[in-house]
Every structure is written in C-alpha cells, then in structure tokens.
Amino acid sequence: MRMMWKQVLPHLCRAKYSGAETHFVVADSGKVLCIDFGYPTGESVAPGKRHPSNRRPLLHSMAGLYKHTGADRIDTVFVSHFHDDHVNGINLLRRLYGTQVWAADLFADLLEQPMKYVWPCLWHETIPVACRLPLHESFKWEGITFTLTPCRDIRAPFRCSPSGMTKFVGGAKPLMICIAS
Length: 181
Description:
The chain has helices at 41-44, 62-69, 84-87, 90-97, 108-112; strands at 4-9, 12-17, 20-26, 32-35, 76-79, 100-104, 131-133, 138-141, 144-150, 158-161, 164-169, 175-180. The protein is an alpha+beta fold. The protein has a single domain (4-133), classed as 4-Layer Sandwich (Metallo-beta-lactamase, Chain A). The N and C termini lie far apart (32 Å).
C-alpha cells in the first residue's frame, strides 16, 4: 500500500492514502486523536462491487503512526463529516482499541442512525458517538484546544499559524476545525 506520512506541526501529522487523508493529533501524554478514519479508496473496493457495503476498512495508518510517533493505538477519533470515505474504518478502531468517537452535534445523528436518512456518501453502519460537540465553542482534548465552525468556502486544505492549525473539511456539511496547543 502506498503511504505518505508528513509532520505538519509538532503535534499534528498527516497520512495521505489514495483520495483521502487522516490527520493525527498526538498529545504530550502520548494519546492520539485522529481526524477521520476512512478507507483507502483504491484498495478497498473489489472490481464489480462498487456498493459502499462492499468496501472494507483497513488499518491503513497504524504502521506509520507507530514508526513516526511510537503510538500503537488511536484513543479518540474526531469525525470531520459523515462521508463514507472519512468514517468507514471507525468501527474497526472501536472494536480493536476501544476508540471513542467524537463528532459535531450538527451531524452526529447521521452517524448514529444512518438508515433514517437519504444522503449521498452516507456510511450504512451505525457509528455510536461518545461525545457530541457544539459548534462555535472551544473544547479541550488532552490539553489541546479545538473549535468547530461551519464553513462554506474551502480554498486550501490547511492554513497554519504560530498559534495552531486550521483544517478546512469539505463535504455536505463542511467544518473548519481550529486546533491550538
């Protein structure tokens, strides 16, 4: 599997695989929060079986996470938006590591009750959300502050500044995630 790993900031790494990315926030405590955990598109779809239910999750970034940070598990996954290519592997993380799922209250119901909705790219399995996060309010994870804001204009995937990082996330209900250590 082709894997690209990049240190973006001291506490932030990015793993890019196929058409999606997973970001890892590594706390001083060694705990890891990842932003999204989907599937590597080209390797998880069998020929002739394009339906999302045929796509299988893989632990695509775990070897890189261990190699670059020493971490061997993901403690928390933050869901940037509900598209299948961003959430497909979350239940695998929950089963293997007991990973907690955090998501914006804006779309947590879509994750927990996907059969009630008709949205494009919606993952078909229930993903229980342990922590529903409000928009426009800061919250902390392991001493790192996050703020979620809905956004409409996505011009670049990142804007870095000395105080932290802003990640723009696309999709049907995009969020701007500000991270400050």
